[in-house]
Amino acid sequence: MALSRGLRCCQRVFSWIPVLIITSVVLWSYYAYVFELCLFTLKSTVEKVAYLLVFHVCFVMFCWTYWKSIFTPPSSPCKKFQLSYSDKHRYEMEERPDVQKQILVEIARKLPIFTRAQSGAIRFCDRCQVLKPDRCHHCSVCETCVLKMDHHCPWVNNCVGFSNYKFFLLFLSYSILYCVFIATTVCQYFLKFWVGELPNGRAKFHVLFLMFVAVMFFVSLMFLFSYHCWLVAKNRSTLEAFSAPVFVSGPDKNGFNVGVRRNVQQILGEDRRLWLVPVFTRNTCSQEIRRRNDLGDNGLVNLFISQGNGHYFPLKNQSSESHNPLLANEDMWEESDDGSEAESQGMSLYYYFNM
After folding, report:
1. Which of 157, 250, 298, 306 could form a disulfide with 348 if both were Cys (CB 3.0 to 4.6 A apart)?
2. 311 and 133 in contact (C-beta within 8 Å)?
């Protein structure tokens, strides 16, 4: 027991090494650009001020998004997806696998769960003792189930998922912007040092190396950022890109694809003014209610959550939602404790009354 605790402690310490590497490179780039280039190499005061102003804007946004990607805790399933004491006792005491599966099926009927395991069974995490919501996966590094898990990123030492995927995308975009700005502004002085127009000194090494590092990181980040932009457009996670989610009707790689515009809104939010700001904006409280009197008295009510709240996401075929009794009764899904406030705020509810 003590040995395993020691190993876990060492693992947690070593997991911060990639973050320290990135932090060290960024701090060195700040010193090299601000001091060695702008203060010691540039002669024009106007050029110095312009470069420093734009650089610090890029630097602050990069640090802000990186901080949010690292220290935003991954979201885990709420209490509604945990087995009750009686259900847990019944599940653990049952030795027949088929009966255990049936127990999970009965519990899942009260929850907005549409995806299944590869075998067709309800997805259940034995470690966390929870029924996995759609797009939720267990992270062996974080040792918890993560809502809409994309991947565990060692460079941020965190799981990238529902709570911080927007921050991760902005981190990639501002990293690219940071590298592009450095490369474009350093380029002419890089050439001057290279051909010997500027005197050799301490600044030469920093400027030359700054150019190489900026270009190298730009190329690698562009591939990663382009891939995630493709994932956002298709409304897939990295895990879903490799293994299509399985529904009752079978695997469907486009099961959560509801159109590019809504796919982007699920990540960045509906307010475009906040798309480039690292604040959580996906969940809104806006409601659009079409009254029964406007469309007839014999209509049927279909409820869906416009952007998703981590536990449930709109499906490509919305008609399947009407078969889930939970989605026909809003009260059954709302949490009663304080921890549910974020979830209830994340539900933009639309009511459609069809003839």
Report:
1. 306
2. yes
**Six-digit token pair at 254?**
């486009």
pTM: 0.83
User: In the predicted model, is pLDDT for residue 231 greater than 50?
Assistant: yes
User: Does 92 score more than 80 pLDDT?
Assistant: yes
Please give the Cα distance from 284 to 108 (Å, whole number). 26
C-alpha 193/C-alpha 319 separation (Å) is 65
Say what angle helices 202-234 and 260-268 make with each other, to 10 degrees: 120
Q: Who's near 346: CB < 8 A, 6+ residues apart?
A: 282, 283, 284, 305, 307, 308, 309, 310
Q: Are strands 137-139 and 144-146 parallel, antiparallel or unpaired?
A: antiparallel
Question: What DSSP string runs through 166-223?
Answer: HHHHHHHHHHHHHHHHHHHHHHHHHHHHHHTSS--SHHHHHHHHHHHHHHHHHHHHHH
CB 74 within 8 A of CB 164: yes
CA-CA distances (angstroms) from residue 154 to 20, 169, 290, 301, 327? Answer: 11, 15, 47, 45, 37
Q: Is 286 exposed, middle or buried (0-12, 13-18, 19+ CB in 10 A)?
A: exposed
pLDDT value of position 335: 43
Joined tokens for residue 237: 């996670």
- In the numeric block, the tokens 């601000």 are attached to 34
Q: Strands 130-131 and 300-305: what pairing?
A: unpaired
Q: Give the SS3 label for residue 334.
A: coil
Q: Residue 69 half-sphere exposure, CB side, CA atoms within 13 Å?
A: 28
Strand partners, 246: 116, 251
Point out the residues that are catalytic: 153
Round to whole Å and give the CA distance between 289 and 275. Answer: 26
